[in-house]
Amino acid sequence: MKDDRYAELLKNVEKPGRYTGGEWNSDEKDPADVDTRLCFCFPDSYEIGMSNLGMRILIDCFNKTKGVFCERSYAPWPDMEAQLKEKNVPLFALESGDPLGKFDLLLFTLQYELCYTNVLNMLSLAGIPMESRERDEEYPLIVAGGPCAYNPEPLADFVDVFSIGEGEEALVELVELYRKCRKEGVPREEFLYRVATELEGFYVPKFYDVSYNDDGTLPSFEPNRDGVPKTVRKRIIEDLDTVNFPEKSPLPYLDVVHDRVMLEVTRGCIRGCRFCQAGMIYRPYRDKSPENLDACAQASIRNTGYSEISLTSLSISDYPRLPELMDKLLAWTDEKQVSLSLPSQRIDAFYEELMQKVMSVRKSGLTFAPEAGTQRLRDVINKNITEDEIMTACGKAFDGGRNSLKLYFMNGLPTETDEDIVGIANLAQSIVDLYYSKKRGGKSVGVTVSVSCFVPKPFTPFQWEKQDDFEELERKQKLLRDSIRTRKIDYKYHDARVSRLEVIFAKGDRRLGKALAEGVKQGRRFDAWDEYFDYDAWMELFASLGIDPAFYANREMSEDELLPWDFIDIGVTKAFLKNERHRSREEQTTPDCRTKCSGCGALTLCKGKCSCTEGRN
User: Fold this and answer.
1) How far apart are CA 225 and CA 564, in angstroms?
2) Residue 610 confidence (pLDDT)
């Protein structure tokens, strides 16, 4: 920020560095060279938003466009919100300090359902009406994208345009159409119509009507203007080696969640875990070349001075050229004392040589995700790993010098029994026993068992499933705790109440919009943070509005009913998702995409060719 107009505000907040801007590598443009102003708004704290690679990529895309300048804003922490309200100051952008209402477009990324109230609260703090029908030409257009946009309906009353899919090309096209329409004097309504009819991958809620049956289900979801498509098809980047990568990202003044270079290796996943939304909505699988990744990594380290590179991917072990990539990176990272870290790995693809390479600079945490404690349930969810593979991978980790592991599981999965819950404790105990089966130099072992509650998500084979009710989830959590027999196992679990609110908004429809708006008025925000989450307040709010949370969370949906997100085409067909659900009930697994194509439909998005088909025997 180039002036001190907010100096008095900053004196009274805990972390003023969240709001000052001016970080090293932050973008600047001469206002005389800019005709279109954007602000990318992250609906969570600065520390979370500055760690988001997608936001960095898209801002860089916009700022490489001549005549366009994209600034940043993050959800103000409650201490800053109080200052804004007390001093009657609208929420502002970091780079210029200008109020958000002065921008042409505001772009929100929807990473998590429990950030929805922050979106609306940021609009309110900016003096912008929350509901789109109340905004005229003088207000910015509100655009939203990200994984939660694949069911946009809970926010349909508030967002002008949803970007469905990958935005590097699509959002630049949207901005160029905006600039063209403004030059031609096209009014707001007509611009939105042209977005809906001329650009692929955009959903404009005002051009669709929805109705409800007496039982709350949907009888229809139809366009209300000629030319508006009945189906919105997601956008993807076919060749990731052509995708933009920000080599000069702003360096935060504060400690942030991921304060390192993040190197995106792949998009999509070959595995097909039936609970995983990301594994479906990001299909087809695509990867970058080691040469491209190495060049991006070297440029990023040179421009930032970071000492750590994190390779990001849904399943890094499935990258077929991972050994080659590691060799290229280690050729210079060792010398520069730059460490490499990997995300949670597939146990069946884990091997000792890779672990030793990663440990060459610094030992980082090692995380595996068995997801279920018994083989039967792992087959139900299509995890496609065996207990022998789990034990072999853990043994290699121990033999390689590790004495601590973190294991991710879920409870409340479809068809789950108490035997499956106890199986988590038994598996963790077997891993502890494996460690002590050999002399390990007197070091004690530590196995962290982290268990989240199953949340059925749109566009997964489990999208029709109900979530266990709150009491049942808590009972299972207690059962697992009581089944653990050693202090060598550290048991961590998620708040079941948070997961219940998450599924309500994940599977919700437009009727939840009034709850979100009223929730913001009542002070609901930062629902993803323990200190501000208030489950009872949400339940009381739903009751006051005649909304039954169980309709969304605890009802098994019919495979024949119209779902709120059915108008979106992600490439993966509904028939495939149904078939996978049926196979789960039969405890049948489906091979990964590289082993055999299962005909999910995603290849239609990339002319029948993806990295899986190239690597298949």
Assistant:
1) 19
2) 64
Answer yes or no: are the C-beta atoms of 54 and 245 closer than 8 Å: no
pLDDT > 70 in the chain, percent: 94
How far is Cα 86 from Cα 497, in angstroms, rounded to an integer? 33
Q: Which domains does the chain have, with CATH numbers?
A: 7-233 (3.40.50.280), 260-364+587-617 (3.30.750.210)
> How many CA atoms, within 13 angstroms, populate the side-chain half-sphere of residue 142?
28
Average pLDDT over residues 279-287: 96
> CB neighbours (10 Å) of residue 585?
10
**Alpha helices (runs of H) in 437-488, residue ranges in sequence order:** 470-483
* pTM score over 0.90: yes
Q: Is the pLDDT of residue 294 over 50?
A: yes
* Residues 84, 76 contacting (CB under 8 angstroms): yes
CA-CA distance, 114 to 44, in Å (whole number)? 10
Cβ–Cβ under 8 Å, residues 515 and 157: no
Q: In what order do the strands lie in the sheet with 36-42?
A: 68-74, 36-42, 105-109, 141-145, 161-163, 202-203
Q: Which has the closest alpha carbon to 455: 472, 444, 439, 468?
A: 468
With 60 as the cut, is the pLDDT of residue 617 above it? Answer: no
CB atoms within 10 A of CB 422: 17
